[in-house]
Amino acid sequence: MFTTPPRAARVPTVSCLLQCVVVFVAIALGLAACGSDKTGAASPRPSSVHSGQSAFPVTVAHKYGSTRITAQPTRVVAVGLTDSEPLLALGVKPVGVVDWFGERPYGNWPWSGKLWAGTAPEIVGERGELNFEKIAAIRPDLILALYSDITQEQYDTLSKIAPTVAQSKEHDDFATPWKEMTRTAGQAVGLESRANDLIAAIDKKFADVRQANPDFAGKTTAIVDPYEPGQYAVFSPNDPRSVFMSEIGFKVPDQIGQLAGPEFAAEISSERLDIVDVDRLLFVTDASDAEARVKADPVYNRLKVAREGRALFVPYADPPVGTALTFNSVLSIPYAIDQLVPLLKTPGSAG
């Protein structure tokens, strides 16, 4: 499973629905009550969200302009792949989400399950495919698309449903850092101060790891998904998995970044495994036979990192260490730290 969407690849949206969705929205919701990049939503109903009314109105800048939010949202739809994470951390349960990993039932990750408190959101899409009719039907008063690659056309359609905050204009699609996502989500729901507190707490956790593990400092690492026999995705320095490793002191070699170019990963065959002959090699896997398959690769076995037992295999599930790294969110980072850091101190596998 090559789980990070490449920048160049987009899952086609349901473009044939766009025109009818606009009509549906106009009739069902009333365009006067809907937001766009210039206007906010109507006053929301009372919410259990911590009080943040004094923060409004607020204007949030993004890739397609700016969005004005006039009152604290109470029905938030998160169409970015991991946008529900900062919202949950802030005490806001989205009423609609997209499902990245095909997770059923939704919301069972160890770092977020309790925060859903048994309240299942509506699934309004999977990865890059959005169901605009479903989104409109649950009557959101805010839509977040922070960790996404929504197009201008999709943004325009979503904005006819509710005020929509798209991905950052400062970063590539699917590349908004966790800190900025958390801060933007906090700003949009009137809880920016709380968001800053959450960020500070995670920064301290990373600092504590670096202080307790000085041997990590400057050591080279590569994070690899052996997604098919003889085929490997080597994640770039900007991928969330690599960013996590950098935060605890490791360094991804420049050669990997150069090979990946503008993509999140360089896809290589066994013959190029020399680029992952690093101080600490981390494989993230979703197949039960992945570790055995890699260890049977004769090219891998010639690497010094393999001969000296400095490779670590962690699964995307059971336990979901790889997923926590992939999300690299304000919620999943503490779980990833607790699960992965002890394993990095000694060679072996998680599971």
TrEMBL record:
Residue ranges of every copy of the Fe/B12 periplasmic-binding domain listed in the record: 75-348
What broad class describes the main subcellular location of this protein? Answer: other
**Assigned GO CC terms:** outer membrane-bounded periplasmic space
Carries keyword Ribonucleoprotein?
no
Q: In which compartments does the protein localize?
A: Cell envelope
Q: Which keywords, in A-to-Z order, does the entry hold? A: Signal, Transport
Which GO biological process annotations does it have?
iron coordination entity transport
| InterPro entries assigned | ABC_transptr_periplasmic_BD (IPR002491), Bact_iron-sidero_bind (IPR051313)
* The keyword Signal is annotated on this UniProt entry: yes
The entry sums up its family as follows:
Belongs to the bacterial solute-binding protein 8 family.
What is the designated name of this protein? ABC-type transporter, periplasmic subunit
